[in-house]
Specification:
The complex is a heterodimer of chains A (483) and B (264). Chain A folds into 3 domains: 103 residues, no CATH class; 159 residues, no CATH class; 177 residues, no CATH class. With 483 residues, chain A is of the alpha+beta class. Chain A contains 16 helices and 12 strands. In chain A, 60% of the residues lie in helices and 13% in strands. Chain B is α/β, with parallel strands linked by helices and 264 residues long. Chain B has a single domain, classed as Rossmann fold (3-Layer(aba) Sandwich), CATH 3.40.50.300. A 6-stranded mixed beta sheet of chain B has the order 6-7-8-3-9-10, sandwiched between helices. In chain B, a hairpin with a 2-residue loop joins β9 and β10. In chain B, α6 packs parallel to α7. Chain B is globular, with a radius of gyration of 18 Å. The chains are: A alpha+beta (483), B alpha/beta (264). The interface between A and B is large, with 31 and 44 residues.
Chain lengths: 483, 264
């Protein structure tokens, strides 16, 4: 294009000198002198003439004086650059930065608030969800424990803990009940008072008579040491969550209820009740239970007959409910719980609880979604004329829609990431605090994290749909006329 | 507006009522009518049978009082809006009645637009603003930016490529808009008061630039303006009043009153 320079270049001089061009000149001069001195001198001469017209008269004078007896171009450039930058740059840079910051912040505040709204929702989803995940895991563990057997406990207590104890003599009655293959007695009591409120399963002391071996499907493995035998009086094995709390290690001793026991094994993590359990012999456990009884209670029991619960294993083909009812008929004041009953009594209420937890989290996320809709609608309305221009220069409805949906989805994405980070922080802190008492309150599963992020992005996208559709379907002429 | 009246008007204006205008005529509008419904009983007839031929390579100004329909005419001729009646031919092809999607294609490839004020996307740099139109037309981002820089060089803004609109003067912004209008090499550029927000000197500069581009590239310009000085720089001045072309500036004055009667 031959006319390019001659036709249009002079109009450069007519253009208002932007502060930024001064800064640019400084940069140009410095950067290019070292490379091609001769050529640069020419460029600078031209640029300087144009740019300096915008300076204060005094500055112009200084600049001109310095430019008079032209020294080597390097000094020339440096002189121009330093004079210009010295007089104006501090002011210019400050003003420009402030203007840019103010612009960014006027737009960003709303974006920030919207993102924060989504973040809170995702945060709630992560925290509440990890709580629900943990509960579900605990109950699933319980399901495994209850699978394939009937658990007989005192009808006055809670799963054999803190109730009127059963008696060892009941074992024979149970084993003689039709359908029963094997019964195993167990003693359990609260480990008690470790200085922290526990969540999920409480810390317990458990003992069993060993008769379940070969029948029990819920097998505990040992990370260190070995399993307890009936003859291991004065010895214990410790569940994984209690290791730090009791300061237990194999070969060492732990103090339980003012007595010292030798640790012979550390159980591998099961993610359910046994993690919070100290296993000891029936003899030791019975002593503890008996010692804690009131005198009235002591009068009605014999120490070596104390039983908290019986695990009852059935003959093949027997229905747990049928056998459980038979046992309850045979014995007074006992509860025989089947796997299905456990599920009904624990799992279903838990599912309701979980649903409520998720519902609360989702409601807060929904509020975040509404704020995205609000923000995007405002954004579309503010940018009506911009949309008109975009359409005039060739944007299709789809391109406009895509642009706004993308913005909305990104709000969701950023909100999701921030929310997840907040959630990880809080659940991490919660679990760290819980670790002291051996109890992790939250289980942040991968499916929860992925689900939360996907949900946040999805919510952002869906929230952007209507505003984007509205933007895409604006009449270009009306949009252009919009003030 | 009935077909008959359109025909009469068209005949009165000495233009064939329909048919391929051939290669020489880039825009042919025949009897365009447009009614804006403001309320149930309240409407405005923005166009009442506007007819015009615009030859390829011309630079024409449309003048007329507010409400004369000149912007509406430009919007319809520019495929931004559709007429209620009449025909629009662009580059030898009939474009009224095209679907919305097809009109987008026409706007991308065949027409460039320059508007008054707020023309550019405020968050994009000058080169990105120009490249945007090329991207919409299907060019890859990298190629579009290269093309954008070429056009910015052409309008003398080679040193302002990375500046966002708020860092550019009004005249510079309009030059970016001109570069953007040209980026897809359209046959015609339409300007709706392109100098409306500019001072006299800058206005003259912008019109001068358009004139140069018109001469050197052969791009047709159709400029809606209030400014007689802009019109003076053009090959012809089209005058509109009450929704019709009363003088097509082509040496054949067509005084037609609001009722469609040819004035003496």
């Amino acid at each position: 294009m031959s006319a390019r320079n001659t036709t249009f270049a002079p109009s450069n001089a007519g253009g208002r000198l932007g502060l930024e061009s001064v800064a640019r000149l400084t940069w140009t001069a410095r950067a290019s002198t070292s490379v091609q001195p001769t050529k640069t001198a020419a460029i600078i001469t031209r640029t300087a003439t144009v740019s300096l017209t915008g300076l204060h008269p005094e500055t112009e004078l200084i600049a001109s004086t310095n430019l008079m007896g032209l020294p080597p171009c390097k000094r020339y450039a440096t002189t121009v650059a330093s004079v210009v930058s010295f007089t104006r740059s501090a002011h210019a840079v400050g003003e420009a930065a402030l203007r840019i910051l103010r612009n960014i912040f006027r737009r960003k505040l709303r974006a920030f608030l919207t993102i924060f709204g989504i973040s809170i929702g995702v945060f709630a989803l992560v925290v509440m969800g990890s709580l629900a995940e943990k509960l579900t895991l605990l109950v699933d563990g319980g399901m495994k424990y209850y699978a394939g057997k009937v658990v007989v406990s005192s009808s006055s207590g809670i799963q054999g803990i803190a109730g009127e104890p059963l008696k060892q003599s009941m074992l024979r009655t149970i084993e003689h009940t039709p359908g029963v293959e094997r019964a195993s007695a167990g003693v359990s009591t609260l480990l008690g008072d470790l200085g922290a409120v526990n969540f999920g399963t409480p810390s317990t002391i458990q003992a069993e008579d060993g008769r379940a071996k070969g029948y029990e499907s819920f097998v505990i493995n040992y990370a260190e040491g070995r399993e307890l035998k009936n003859t291991d009086v004065g010895k214990v094995t410790v569940g994984s969550d209690l290791v730090s709390k009791l300061n237990a290690h194999v070969g060492g001793h732990v103090e339980i209820k003012d007595k010292r026991y030798e640790v012979i094994g550390i159980a591998a993590k099961t993610l359910t009740a046994p993690d919070n359990t100290v296993m000891m012999t029936m003899e030791d456990a019975r002593k503890i239970v008996y010692d804690e009884m009131t005198d009235a209670q002591k009068a009605s029991v014999q120490e070596d007959g104390i039983v908290s619960s019986f695990a009852v294993y059935l003959k093949p083909g027997e229905r747990p409910e049928v056998v459980a009812r038979r046992i309850e008929r045979e014995l007074d004041d006992v509860d025989a719980m089947t796997p299905n009953e456990f599920e009904r009594s624990i799992k279903q209420p838990l599912q309701i609880f979980t649903s409520i937890i998720y519902a609360i989290a989702l409601i807060s996320l929904l509020v975040g979604g509404l704020s995205v809709i609000n923000t995007m609608t405002m954004s579309v309305s503010e940018r009506t004329r911009e949309i008109g221009v975009r359409k005039a220069i060739g944007a299709s409805n789809g391109q406009i829609m895509g642009q706004f949906i993308a913005e909305s989805a990104v709000i969701g994405l950023i909100g999701g990431i921030v929310g997840i980070l907040l959630g990880l922080m809080v659940t991490g802190m919660g679990n760290a605090a819980g670790a002291v008492s051996g109890n992790a309150l939250f289980l942040v599963s991968n499916r929860l994290l992925v689900g939360s992020l996907v949900f946040a992005v999805g919510l952002g996208t869906v929230s952007g749909l209507y505003p984007a559709w509205h933007a895409a379907n604006l009449n270009p002429v009306e949009a252009l006329r919009y003030e | 507006m009935s077909e008959g009246v359109d025909m009469e008007l068209a005949m009165a204006q000495g233009v064939a009522p329909s048919g391929d205008p051939g290669h020489e005529v880039i825009v042919r509008a025949i009897g365009l009518s447009k009614r804006y419904q403001l309320g149930k009983q309240n409407f405005v007839d923005a166009l009442r049978g506007a007819t015009l031929d615009l030859r390829r390579g011309e630079m024409a100004a449309i003048m007329g009082p507010s409400g004369s329909g000149k912007s509406t005419f430009m919007h319809i001729a520019g495929c931004l809006d559709t007429a209620d009646g009449g025909e629009v031919w662009l580059n030898g092809r009939r474009v009224d009645g095209l679907s919305g999607a097809a009109l987008v294609g026409v706007r991308r490839k065949e027409i460039g637009f320059i508007f008054q004020g707020f023309n550019l996307i405020p968050t994009l740099s000058a080169e990105e603003n120009v490249a945007l139109a090329a991207e919409y037309a299907g060019l890859g981002r990298r190629d579009a930016l290269v093309r954008g820089r070429e056009l910015l060089d052409l309008v003398g803004l080679g040193d302002r490529m990375r500046h966002v609109p708020s860092e550019l003067s009004g005249g510079q912004q309009q030059r970016v808009a001109i570069a953007r209008a040209l980026v897809n090499d359209p046959g015609i550029v339409m300007g709706d008061e392109p100098t409306g927000d500019l001072d006299t000197a800058t206005s003259a500069e912008i019109v001068g630039m358009m004139r140069t581009i018109n001469k050197e590239r052969g791009t047709t310009f159709l400029i809606v303006t209030h400014n007689p000085e802009v019109a003076v720089s053009c090959d012809r001045t089209i005058r509109m009043r009450d929704g019709v072309v009363v003088d097509d500036g082509d040496g054949t004055p067509q005084g037609i009153d609001a009722g469609g009667n040819v004035l003496a």
